[in-house]
Design a protein that fits this description.
The chain is mainly alpha-helical. Helices cover 77% and strands 0% of the residues. It has a domain of 30 residues. 0% of the residues are buried. It comes from Brassica napus (Rape). This is (rape) hypothetical protein.
Length: 47
Amino acid sequence: MANSKVFLSDLISGRCSSTVEVRLLRLRELMSVDMLLRDSKHLDSAS
């Protein structure tokens, strides 16, 4: 993934909103996967 910087002035003007939306979606997906892995480890240790 490219390492691009997003500045507050760009967010306010709306120039980088799609970049931020994509990053937030990726973060949400990663958090969801992490929670699934934690749940599966918990279920394995409980049985």
